[in-house]
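Exercise 3.2. Students should predict the tertiary structure of the chain below and write it as structure tokens, then compare their answer with the key that follows.

Predict this chain's 3D structure.
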Amino acid sequence: MHDRGGLVFRSAYGPDFRQLAQDEKEARRVQVEAAFAAGRPTYYSTLRDSILPGRKLMLEGVLRAVGGEADRLPFETPRGRALWEALPVRVDRAMAASFYRYRALVAFYPLMRALARAERGDSRAALLLLQEASSVGFDVLWVPEAASQAAQWAAYLASRSGDWRAGEAAYRSALAFTPKNAEARVNLAVSVEKQGRLEEAEALYLAAVKEAPSVEAWYNLGSMYWANRRWREAASAFEQAFRLKPDDRRLDHYRRESLRRSAPR
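Answer key:
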């Protein structure tokens, strides 16, 4: 039996749960929660959308519901649309200034609302809500990474629909939350490149590979050079990518072909 907030209840994970090794605890957790989800509505209060392997989690207000209703997106259901309209989110700024735990809790609300807005295609509103979460939780340890991930998700959704300008804004927001996020910088470069600002995209790719060299960054840079017939620079970029992944035949092909095309004729 365990005490939680004045209530005493029997652990659903078994009486031996606390004595298990960490990996055994995780396996037990997944087993028990999967059984719950198979027979009844199951909700999580979590930032992790992959907490239950193999099951889709849908946003429902500040919670995530294990898949149901044919796994429809929340904005496609009346309940999903109505939840945020019915849920008041008030922030007491005086309490926020005085109590860390209050800030750590309250910041969760605008962040989850931002995710819902992003899934509804309103990335601008999502970014404003993420700024609110960051402002309220200015020193909360979980906020920068969570806000950055949410901004990157909003950017991905915008980019997937072809709105590269909105994608760019969201990736810049992600970098504001986590300035050393090389992946966000690479994706920002892609957004900028898609808008035809090639010099700026090149600078972003180079900054990304300087900070954290990756196959994706070098490959994207090489592809941009290739598209603009800058063969020598393309060969150099593909060579760097190939060194990081020497078993990739595609990279080997492009580096060889770039070298061939860069040779004097």
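Discussion points: Residues 89-179 form one domain. Strands lie at 2-4, 7-9, 43-44, 57-60, 63-66.
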